Structures are given as structure tokens and as C-alpha cells.
Amino acid sequence: MSRNLEVFPSVAISSISATSTDVRRPWEVLWASQRTAQNACNIVDNMRVAFGSEATISLVPGRNINVKKFVRHLSKDVKISSIDIPDNYPLHKMFRDMLILRKEKSGSVLNRFGWFITNVSTEKQQRRKVKKALKTTNVNTVKANTSFWREGHEKSGNKLVKVLEKYQRRTRRDISLAVEIDSEKQNPEEYLDFVRKLRSSLKGRVNVVLDVDLGHITQRGGSSESFLTTLMKDEDLKNAIHIISLNQYIPGDTEAHTRPDDPSGAVDLPASVHILGENGLEPTVLFELHPSDKHFFAEESGMSFAKKLKYAYLSGQKGRRVQE
Question: How far apart are CA 215 and CA 283, in angstroms?
Fold first, then answer.
């Protein structure tokens, strides 16, 4: 049951959303710890005003982030709530993607470069970044893509689990592993089946929970509303929803990080939030905005959209109270 029927759930912003896009100051993009931390604090302040609830950061410790410097430049009242494990995106793959996208709008090519600098090249770098981030931030949640356990790559996911187990033993603190759909290989049904199996296989070792990324769910052929409605019927998975990522997807795009209020978007985010409210759920609501939209919640349109989400969630809660 909700702790407070008049409060929207806690919200969070991805650190990638706070990355500088000022090409005139490339050092703030390539060595981004200080500027990204400052931008993230501004976004958190804007979200607190827009939603009237707690706001935090989900940190992606990629190539351009020194975790210690990032934390040092955060305001004292701004917290990191989760570590989002960076993807493996080596240099040769970036150049390959750039060649494929070269005939499209330049933004697609720039996005590939941005994705390169905010992620890592190898599994070893991945695990090293996670270890440093856990040691520095003391968070209780680590986000991972199910692709880490993709067929033929199971060792990668298993090594990650061992990192988390060692951390739990050393600190005597439990870690939740929030997994999201593989936006390249899974459909929504396969994702849920995978989570069930992973929760079962890691029971007693690491607490596996869900990061429901509505943008990628839709990108992989699902409907956010239908998916959530189905999920609500599975009591075990329903109660394991730890994060819900309110990302928007435009059909035909290669990414799912457009403005949440884009009229061309296929994800009905207010309707999805309404379902959470009527089921009494309070997952962290995560936004993974494109860095060019980092000021979204400071703008009138962003404030208006936040108001729509709050209304949808609270109306769902009121409907739940009537039923009870």
C-alpha cells in the first residue's frame, strides 16, 4: 500500500541525460565528471519542483566519468540511487554504426559518438567500473541489461553476479539487481520469462528485480499498457517492479529516448503511470532523456507533462481506494 496517497513516487534521472552537448567545449563531454554532476544536480532540483517528490540520480559510470570526481561535485542534498552498468561499445562498433548511419541526419552519427563515450569497451572495464562505483556510492541497486546473460554470453552475467555477491559479503548489505529488456534481441514475453528464470536461479544470492523500460518494451513490439496489465496478473513479478523507466519511443527510430511528451511517441506514459497507481505500486520512476533535452523539466512543457503524470498516478490510486 502507498506510504502517502498524495505523493508521486520518487523520481530519478540518468546521468547520461546530464551529459554536456556543447561541442564548443569538448572537454566537458570527454572528461565530463564535473559538468555532468552539476547538470545532474540542476535536473534533480527541477524534478523536485515538477513532481513534488524525492529525486535522485542513476549513475552510468562510462568512459567519460570518474566516479569519485562525479560524487565530489554533487550537491550535499543530491543522492545517487542506482548504478546503471555501462554497455560494451568498442571503438570498431562505433565506426561501423557511423558508416551505417552516415546517410541519415547528423544527429544519428553524433548519438553514436555520445553512446561510445558514455559506455565502455570490454567486460573487464565494465566490472571494474561497477566495483569502483559500488565502493564510492554505497547504493543498494544495480541496473543491468538482460543482454549480459544472452546465449553465448552467460559468463559475462555470471561474473557480474559474483562481483555483487562479493560486495554483499564484504559490506553485509543486500544489493538488488534490476534487469531491463534487451532492446535488440528480446520481445516482452521473452523478457518476462527470462526474469522469472533469473530470479529463480539467483534466489538466495542476489535479489533480482525489474527495471521496466516502457520505451524499449514498445520498441520490441509490445504495448506499454498491455504489458503492464499482464504484469499485474503475476503477483511475484508485480511486486518485483523496482524501477519503471518512462522512456518514449517513436516508431522507426533506432533509440527510445525522445522527449516524453512527443506527440509522435507510441508510449502512453500517463496511462502507464495510472496502472501503477491503481495497483498501489511505488517503483522509482526513471527518466533517461536525451542529453539535448536535459532542461525538459525546467520548461513549461516539462512541468505540464509532470503534472499529467501526477494526475494519472493519483487518479489511479483514488480508483484503488474506491475498490477497496
Answer: 16
